[in-house]
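fwd from M.: "can u put these together and see what the complex looks like"

so here's what she sent:
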Amino acid sequence: MIIVLRPDATKDQVNHIIEKVKVLGLTPHVSQGTERTIIGVIGPEDVLRVTPLEVFPGVESVLPVLAPYKLVSKEFRKEGSVIDLGKGVKIGGKKAIIMGGPCAIENEPTLREIALAIKECGVSVIRGGAFKPRTSPYSFQGLGEEGLKILKRVGDELNMVTVSEVMDTRDVGLVAQYVDVMQIGARNMQNFNLLKEVGLTRKPVMLKRGMASIVKETLMSAEYIMSGGNFNVILCERGIRTFEDSTRNTLDVSAVPVAKQLSHLPIIVDPSHAAGKWGLVGPLAKAGVTVGADGLIIEVHTHPEDAKSDGVQSLIPSNFSSLMKELKAIAQAIGREL
Ligand code: PEP
Ligand code: MN
């Protein structure tokens, strides 16, 4: 249920309603829009039949939210959410945010070299996995905390926002301590305990769509995070499993406008894990910006032939730099910045 307040509702009126909602055993989530405040109410709504909130001073209307995702929905917030990633970077606004970096953090000199190369192209967000969800237990599993330390050092040194995956509820505190954005990988999109745990933090969370999940299930996973009080959620389309085997996954470009119709959350595209081959990353990245993604996350490596994971789909800096120029032109053509 959503309580829409009148544009002239006073602070006292808003607080009075919030208190009443809490007394009724419901959880209020306040969203301050540009024109008016709205309060999302989560919990057993039956009690509202006895105490209709419409009669409270300052209330304009009370609307049911029909979608199963409430806080995530467009009904809860009409304008797109802008999420502050720290270090002066915000996602969800006019500027599309490009994130780049290796699949896995391998060592400090290599990460620094990659970070410097992408920074030169105007990128201010560096990605790198320290906990890697590998299909084989014999593949490189990531450097763990040592990797997070390397990422933090490089991020601080170059004033870049850092993104890294958290795979386990037991590591949420640790990862949150080192990174600016926590990534939930495709394989963990429906790890509900992990979603609840990151929902208890206030760190931005980049939630990747599960490889066999529909958009609405992705939104329900985002709802798990938001229902814990963490509203800093960024969705990510990274390709889904289909019968097509020319690419690693099939990039569902329609997921971007679909998610934007249903939700106020920013959504980015990961062309690298969709493509699976570096030669296809550029076209998919361009498609992502064209359909209105709020950003991209692209795997870049200075020595992809030596990469410990996903070298085949990693762009070398010179190709990444040319792509950035093309992306800038596309962004400009559709009234965005990059
Ligand atoms: C990754 O970003 O390196 C990754 C493992 O992605 P996904 O969870 O989308 O497969
Ligand atoms: Mn990868």
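replying to her w this: The chain is about 35% helix and 20% strand.
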